[in-house]
Amino acid sequence: MRTYIKLLSLVVSLCLLLSFVGPSFAASVETHYIDGKVIKTEVLVDNESVRKVKVTENNEKTVITTYDKTSGNLEILETDNQTAEIKITNLNVQSGESTSIGVQSSFLHKEGLFFDGSYIISGSYWQIYNSNDQRKFLTLTTSNSTNLNNFKTAIDNMVERERSAIAAGGTTIVSTVVALFTTPPGLSVLLSTVTALGGTVTTGIILWNAYDYQKEADYYWGQAR
């Protein structure tokens, strides 16, 4: 229990402490050893409005905390990687109010390697993110199942194309191009950039397809209710 409290405190402390740091940051993973456990911390997002921190404990538990700097809201998503149990806690730093829900079911998660967009699925509970890191937390119903499943398929295809592009052109080229162009720059610009960096036309075409799937995922994210 003490380790769990330390883990949760570490996540929340990182979110709040880093609010005094400017918007620019270099994402990195830090490793800590607490009560014989390996704790890894990583700042996933840090901008003027949101900070998101990920902490893993011996690869058995993952905690992702999102801090809304404007409203003071903290969303803490705890995942037991062994049992697939999920607990979501919402806190408000200003008011002290809190709510939480627990879910026990099968667990699916996928996110872009360099492109943005992801999903977390536990039973009928879906948490989906678009390329702007905007989140929706939805319950699967007959009316939204098509849009949600289409979103999932688009993310799956996007990640598959990312992996294919890495296999064809290498991690450095893919990461550099995606960092340069957060939105599709046009096929000719993309191909010329990839080849100028030493990649192949095939790599550029695969990346273009990945951009298309990211756009498709954003569309279905917008349609999902």
UniProtKB/TrEMBL annotation:
It comes from the Bacteria. This is Uncharacterized protein. NCBIfam families: Geo26A_fam (NF035925). Residues 1-26 form the signal peptide. Keywords: Signal.
